[in-house]
Amino acid sequence: MGSENRFYTGAEFSLDAKWLIDPKHLYVGPKIGEGAHAKVYEGKYRSHNVAVKVVQRGENPEEAGKREARFAREVEMLSRVQHKNLAKFIGACKEPVMVIVTELLPGGTLRRYLLDRRPRCLDLREVICFALDIARAMECLHCHGIIHRDLKPENLILTADHKTVKLADFGLAREESVTEMMTAETGTYRWMAPELYSTVTLRRGEKKHYNHKVDVYSFAIVFWELIHNKLPFEGMSNLQAAYAAAFKNSRPCVKNLQEDLALILTSCWKEDPNDRPNFTQIIRMLAHYLSTISPMEPVIPPCIFPSENRVFPPESPGTSALMPPRDNSAKTPSTQMMMEQQQHKRFFFCFSQCY
């Protein structure tokens, strides 16, 4: 399989040394998220609080190869796009397991933020600011020729002050030049553009193909959810929602919205992808609409503790086996070094056993 700083996607390529994580300095705490093929943990890397995504290897050689290729694609894309509305990439390693390390965003997912406020709606100015954050992140990806393909509230993370949204999880992202059909195991139908999974866009003998406009459709569904704080296509299963969108051209209701807001939504989820605006145009429309809204009432912010000062308490779930014990007694430099080496060994043992 090559050395630990090599990744494979059919064609071999190297990870730049500046992005290579040294597992000896990586500590893992409680689990904060889980997907179909990966788990995300709160952790520490050197002096930074981080999110640690651990990609599970496949149960057979074919599945393992697919997951390694997806892991390699995600690492390569994260390493070349930096933006204030994208979760900051810190690094990755392939051994002892496939790990992607990004900045820790303590604000939680947009999904959790919305659920915590139901049935209340968000302030409209907050909605537009969040939508602008998402649109700017997507504009950056598209400028680099990357399609995210899985834009939904679960992949949008808030900063500690709940003022900024950042896009995370590039597990399904693809280069626009190598698009292919999505399968039932990838993406989430409720937010996916119909052309990703249906034959409704095949006309005049066209080949099955999609472009970056699939992310524009997903953005519209997320934006509608931000406005209403309701699940889109409520009362339907994911498959029922997909069927209604693809074969009945159904969309969430916009009849009670202001004309400008309704226009943004309806233009973004048009059936023909070529009729949808790009994110540069969307940002312009959102910024114009924001300028017409009166400012929010000033709010006294809650006490926020800087993430740099956060530590894992010994009793935190999952940390007792993975984190070295504390000892406040004085230590000489040589003793400290020996203890750190022992802690690293203990960490590797637990890390390997867990995965």
Task: Give a written overview of the molecule.
The chain has two domains: 104 residues, 2-Layer Sandwich (Phosphorylase Kinase, domain 1); 182 residues, Transferase(Phosphotransferase), domain 1. The chain is of the alpha+beta class. A hairpin with a 4-residue loop joins strand 6 and strand 7. The protein has a five-stranded antiparallel β-sheet with strand order 3-4-5-7-6, covered by helices on one side. The longest helix has 22 residues. Helix 3 runs antiparallel to helix 7, helix 4 packs antiparallel against helix 6 and helix 6 packs antiparallel against helix 7. It contains eight helices and eleven strands. The N terminus and C terminus are likely disordered. This is Protein kinase domain-containing protein. Pfam families: PK_Tyr_Ser-Thr.
Task: Give the SSE map.
Layout: E1 6-9, E2 11-14, E3 26-34, E4 38-45, E5 48-55, H1 61-80, E6 89-93, E7 98-103, H2 110-117, H3 124-143, E8 146-147, E9 156-158, E10 165-167, E11 174-175, H4 213-228, H5 238-247, H6 259-268, H7 279-291, H8 333-354
Antiparallel strand pairs: 1-2, 3-4, 4-5, 5-7, 6-7, 8-11, 9-10
List keywords for this structure.
355 residues; alpha+beta; Phosphorylase Kinase, domain 1; Transferase(Phosphotransferase), domain 1; two-stranded antiparallel ribbon; 8 helices; 11 strands; 34% helix; disordered N terminus; Ser/Thr_kinase_AS; transferase; serine/threonine-protein kinase
